[in-house]
Design a protein that fits this description.
By secondary structure, this protein is mainly α. 69% of the residues lie in helices and 3% in strands. The protein has helices spanning 2-28, 49-62, 72-91, 95-112, 135-152, 159-175, 181-202, 215-234, 243-249, 251-266, 279-285, 290-313, 318-346, and strands spanning 32-33, 45-46, 119-121, 129-130. Strands 1-2 form a two-stranded antiparallel ribbon. Strands 3-4 form a two-stranded antiparallel sheet. Strand 3 (119-121) and strand 4 form a beta hairpin. The longest helix is centred in the C-terminal third of the chain and has 29 residues, at 318-346. It starts with a helix and ends with a helix.
Length: 347
C-alpha cells in the first residue's frame, strides 16, 4: 500500500493545480456549461474537472515505479474519450460521433489491449458461463454502457463523482492485495483525484463562483476507467472478485442507464434523446432538495457496494448475488416508473 501513496499524492496535487490553471483557459475558449431548459444551474460553469483529473492520473502514472507498457492501451483509449469529450463539451457533437469514438476506444482495449469479459461466472447456478466468441462483442458493449452510465448520472452536483468515488473505494477494498499493480494503481489514484474534483464541484469550503463541472470528458474518462479495472479484477485465474460482484460495485449508474433506456423505448422515444426524467430529476420534481436527492442516491450507492463487498468476503453463491441484483433493479425500475407517472400527473 505504501508504494501507492506517492502516486496518489501526486495525482491529487496535479489535479488541484490543473483546476486553477485551466479556469482562464475554459473562459477564453468558451469551454463552459451554460444554463438551459435541462440545466438549471446559475451562471457559466467551467467544464475542466475531467481534463484536470485526466492530467492528474496521467502524470501520476508516468511518475510511478511500475511498467508503463501495462498502461499503453488504456491511456490511448482514455485519450480518445477525453478528447472527444472536450470537443463535445465545447460544441455539442452529434450522438453518432460520440458513439463512434467510444466504439474505437473500446475496440482498442478489447482487441490489442486484450482486456474484456471472458466469463460471467456461475450466474445461474449451473456452472461457469464462458463467452468464447461472444467475448469481444459483450466486452465492447460493456465499455460503451459503462462510459454512458457515468455520463448519464452526471446531472446533479456531486452525483457522478460521488457514485464513482464509492465504486473505486469498493474496488480498492476488494483488490488491494491483487497482483495486478497497474489496475489497483488506477483505482487508488481515482480515489485521490475524485475528492479534489468533488470539493470544487460541491463547493465545499470554497465560493460557489468557483464551481466546476467534469463535463463529458470527465464522465467518459471515469466510466472507461471503472469498466477497465472491473474487467481486470473480475476476470482470469487471479481475479479479486466474482464477475457478478462488479454489478454491485457499479450498481446505481448501471441501473439508471438500463431503466432510462427501457422507459424511453416503452414510451416510443429514442434511447439517445436527453430528457429530465432521470431518477435524480424525478426526486427533485417530487419536492426533494438537491442535497437530499444527492444523499439518497449516494447512500443507495454505498449500500449496493457494501452488499457486493460482503457477498465476496462471505463467498455468497454467485447465482444468489445475481438474482438479488435483478430483484433490486426491478424495484428500482418500478419506483422510477411510479415517480415518472406521478410527475407527469403533476405537470
Amino acid at each position: 500500500m505504501i508504494m501507492y501513496i506517492k502516486p496518489m499524492v501526486i495525482a491529487a496535487i496535479i489535479t488541484l493545480s490543473a483546476i486553477y490553471f485551466l479556469r482562464p483557459f475554459a473562459v477564453n475558449f468558451k469551454l463552459l456549461d451554460l444554463p438551459n431548459e435541462r440545466k438549471k444551474h446559475e451562471g457559466s460553469i467551467p467544464l475542466i474537472g475531467g481534463i484536470a483529473m485526466f492530467l492528474g492520473v496521467i502524470v501520476s502514472i508516468f511518475l510511478s515505479p511500475i511498467d508503463l507498457n501495462n498502461f499503453n492501451y488504456f491511456l490511448t483509449a482514455a485519450l480518445i474519450v477525453v478528447l472527444i469529450g472536450v470537443f463535445d463539451d465545447h460544441s455539442s457533437l452529434p450522438v453518432s460521433y460520440r458513439l463512434l469514438f467510444q466504439i474505437i476506444a473500446a475496440l482498442i482495449l478489447v482487441t490489442v489491449g486484450e482486456e474484456g469479459i471472458s466469463s460471467l461466472g456461475n450466474l445461474l447456478g449451473y456452472g461457469e458461463i464462458t463467452l468464447n466468441e461472444w467475448s469481444m462483442l459483450l466486452s465492447v458493449f460493456a465499455i460503451i454502457a459503462g462510459i454512458n452510465a457515468v455520463n448519464m448520472a452526471d446531472g446533479l452536483h456531486g452525483l457522478a463523482g460521488g457514485n464513482s468515488l464509492i465504486s473505486f473505494i469498493a474496488i480498492s477494498i476488494l483488490s488491494i492485495k491483487s497482483p495486478s499493480q497497474d489496475s489497483i494503481l488506477i483505482a487508488l489514484v481515482f480515489c485521490s483525484v475524485l475528492p479534489i474534483f468533488l470539493i470544487h464541484n460541491l463547493c465545499l469550503g470554497i465560493s460557489a463562483t468557483k464551481r466546476i463541472f467534469m463535463g463529458d470528458a470527465g464522465s467518459m474518462f471515469i466510466g472507461l476507467a471503472i469498466v477497465w479495472v472491473l474487467f481486470d479484477f473480475s476476470q482470469g485465474e487471479e481475479k479479486s472478485f466474482a464477475p457478478v460482484i462488479a454489478l454491485w460495485l457499479f450498481a446505481p449508474p448501471l441501473m439508471e442507464i438500463a431503466s432510462t433506456v427501457l422507459r424511453r423505448l416503452m414510451s416510443g422515444a429514442s434511447p439517445f434523446k436527453p430528457d429530465t426524467f432521470h431518477f435524480h430529476h424525478l426526486l427533485q420534481k417530487l419536492g426533494y432538495s438537491k442535497r437530499k436527492t444527492l444523499t439518497i442516491i449516494l447512500l443507495f450507492s454505498a449500500l449496493m457496494a457494501l452488499i457486493g463487498i460482503l457477498g465476496e468476503i462471505f463467498n455468497i453463491a454467485e447465482n444468489l448475488m445475481f438474482f438479488g441484483f435483478l430483484l433490486v433493479f426491478l424495484i428500482y425500475f418500478y419506483l422510477g416508473e411510479l415517480a415518472y407517472k406521478k410527475v407527469l400527473k403533476l405537470n
